[in-house]
Amino acid sequence: MKYDLICIGMALVDSIIRGVDPKPVSASGYLAETGTLNAGGEAVNEAAAASKLGLKTGILCALGNDPAGEIVLKELEKNGVDTSSVVRTAATPVTTMFVREDGTRQSITNQAHRFNFHPEKDPALFTEARAVILGSLFRAPFDDPAVIHAVVSSAKAAGEMVIADTKLPNFRFLTLEDIRESLPLIDYITPNEDEARHFTGEDDPGKMAEVFLSYGVKNVIIKLGSKGCILKNKEMTLRIPACPVHAVDATGAGDNFAAGFVSEILRGTRREEALRFANACGAICTTAAGAGTALQNREQVLEFMRTHEKSNL
To answer: Which of 41, 71, 195, 242 has its CA 20 to 30 A from that of 112?
Structure first.
């Protein structure tokens, strides 16, 4: 295989603003503690994290021929991600994120996020891998049922594991019913609690997972933030507690989680241990501003896990 993992989806720049003082200093001016520009987007975050964790990783995404696109491209290359399949376009999306003291955030998107490139037109770009991540389902380019089905069908025909990370829709709204024919082709779906609630209408994580399973998804992982995560399939349910940390910025924590889980599964790790590893990756991510700042390598994650286990004795 050419790759261990291919990540397909959104690439953008996050303008992250922390510690905004709501009191203006002038008629139109406000102060903030910090402001940074970071490469982002689900596919970018997952590809960079997976590469740091030791996977041979490629990415299929769209980047503008602009300064924002160069920021993302250089970050991917710095982290060892193969960028030969990147599609160059007119504009790179930029998201402005306001981060609160507890690490939670609000974001502002723009019309560039609607750009829908077409990965389904060239399956050879993503079918030479052991696994593929759709980052993220319900956002461009995976906000079109035909595109979703073409990609997951090609991936499964090539014998790939299919992981679908999810996102709340922004410009185009799909339901689980809209993509019914694609869901049985997904090996793992990884929504966070808010996303799972939105798509299933349920409040209990176990019931949320049951809805996804009823559509034919093989395994459901619901990311519960400070409450850890739950994995459910037709045979079993696993609940894994979170790793307590002082959160600075939760941007990209779910993407680091997904990359961590896939990296361990591809190593042959049991699912329970892979989930613990994924939790640790997500926790580490929150300790610095930006999705790709804190996580460094697999050894760092393993040491973090050992330290966390000792502190719980």
So the answer is: 195
